[in-house]
Specification:
A five-stranded antiparallel sheet has the order 2-1-3-4-5. Strand 3 and strand 4 form a beta hairpin. It is of the alpha+beta class. Helix 1 crosses helix 2. It has a single domain, classed as Structural Genomics Hypothetical 15.5 Kd Protein In mrcA-pckA Intergenic Region, Chain A.
Length: 120
């Protein structure tokens, strides 16, 4: 099975074109080598997928016939990402969430109403 199709089937990418772009930009490794979208995936292969700031690592257990539901993904791939990397990702999420000041970015509903009243 093609790598881009496999990434789409096991829901690591939302569309096949996103999977192709990830391969082009070097965000996917197959057996510790950068892989093209057309690379063949087989059972037992090691797959690394970049989810900033870490590389998520998976082992291919079984090849799907087509795209599967989220509950069935665990039967197809086994997550072998080291625990330390998962902790790094969780810390990065918390830092990013804590860094945003309330009221910055998109205005809240109250702020939008105040702006509408002010502008007439």
């Amino acid at each position: 099975m093609r790598l881009d199709k496999f990434l789409w089937c096991v829901r690591l990418c939302k569309t096949r074109s996103v999977a192709v772009d990830a391969c082009k930009h070097g965000h996917v490794q197959l057996n510790d080598r950068e892989a093209k979208a057309s690379a063949e995936v087989k059972q037992g292969d090691q797959l690394a997928f970049r989810q900033a700031p870490i590389w998520r690592r998976f082992e291919v257990v079984q090849l799907p016939a087509s795209r599967v539901g989220a509950k069935l993904v665990a039967e197809l791939i086994k997550d072998i990402t080291p625990w330390e990397d998962l902790e790094k990702q969780e810390i990065a999420r918390k830092v990013k969430a804590a860094g945003r000041e309330p009221g910055t970015g998109r205005p809240t509903k109250k702020e939008r109403r105040d702006l509408e009243r002010f502008s007439g």
